[in-house]
Specification:
two-stranded antiparallel ribbon; 68 residues; mainly alpha; single chain
């Protein structure tokens, strides 16, 4: 799964730590998601969408390998 969390953070000019506090997760969780090493729960994905004021599908995109 690909995500645009880093891009969305840049648009809002917030750090990983800032986003982590808003989303109620650790900074390491945000970092792992940005690196593609962690797939968030549905609840966390929805929280991030609300924080960024976008649809979940604008942050998280399936890749071909996700269908295998």
């Amino acid at each position: 799964m690909h995500n645009s969390i880093k891009v969305e953070r840049a648009k809002k000019n917030i750090t990983q730590a800032d986003l982590a506090a808003l989303a109620k997760v650790s900074r390491q969780t945000i970092n792992a998601m940005e690196l593609g090493k962690y797939v968030p729960s549905t609840v966390l994905a929805l929280r991030l969408a609300q924080i960024f004021k976008v649809e979940v599908s604008e942050i998280f995109m399936l890749e071909a390998s996700d269908w295998n």
